[in-house]
Amino acid sequence: MSYTIQATTRTEIGKGSSRRLRREGKVPGVIYGTGKTPVSIVFDHKDIINVQANDDFYTSELTIVLDGKEVKVRAQAMQRHVFKPIIEHVDFVYA
What we know:
The protein is mainly beta. It is about 15% helix and about 50% strand.
């Protein structure tokens, strides 16, 4: 199954800006890989919370539509809130 997530490039980086994004219902993330520059991204929490519940989310290629351009990635790591059902940060690797 293929998954598509709409995202935008993040310009503000840091703990304070990430907290502001989370309060707005957004999730900060990063896409990185060998030979390519890392890209900081942000997307809506509602776009990923239901998708990540599927087992094949972690093993299949995902498509991130980043500012109108499709990027193929794989989920590398995901940070979750300790007791709330909230995703705090996601790391993706170029596929």
